[in-house]
Amino acid sequence: MRMAFEIDIRHVLPSISVPTLVVHRTGDRMCDVHNGRYLADHIPGARYVELLGDDHLPWAGADDVLDTVVGYLRDEILPRLGVMADDRPRTSGAPGGMSDPGRPVASPEARASVLFSEGAVAAASGDAEGARFLLGRAAEIAREAGAVRLEARARR
User: Fold this and answer.
1) Strand ranges (DSSP E) for the chain?
2) Domain coordinates of the chain in residue numbers?
3) Is residue 130 predicted with pLDDT exceeding 50?
C-alpha cells in the first residue's frame, strides 16, 4: 500500500485520450475524494461521478457502482461504437439492453463482445433469462465470425 501511495502519475493525466469514467465515494476512507476530482479535472473529457458512502472497495455497495458504469457504457461508449440502447424487456430490475440488433458495430467480433458484456451484466444482476439470450446471441455471432475464444467464453 505504501508503494501504491508513492506513485505519482499527475504528469501523465493530460495525455490520456481514451474515454474515462472516474467514480469516487464522498467519504472514501482510503483515498480522499479530492483525488478523484483531481483525476477527472486533469484527464481530458473525463466524466466524474461522486457516490455516497465511505468504502474504498468498488464492490461494497456495488449496485450504485454497477449502475454508474453500465450507464456510462450505455450512454457514452456504445454510441461511439454505433450501438444504441434498445427496449428489450428484462425479467429483473437489471439495466435494459444496450445493443441494437439492426445497427451493427464495426465488426462481428466487436458486436459479439458488446453482447457478451451485456450478458455478463445481466447475469450479475440476476437476470438469467436476459443473460441466456444475450450470451447465446454473442456465441452465434462469434461462431459466424470465427472468433473461437469469444464463442467459448459466451457459451461457458
Assistant:
1) 21-25, 47-51
2) 1-56, 61-156
3) yes
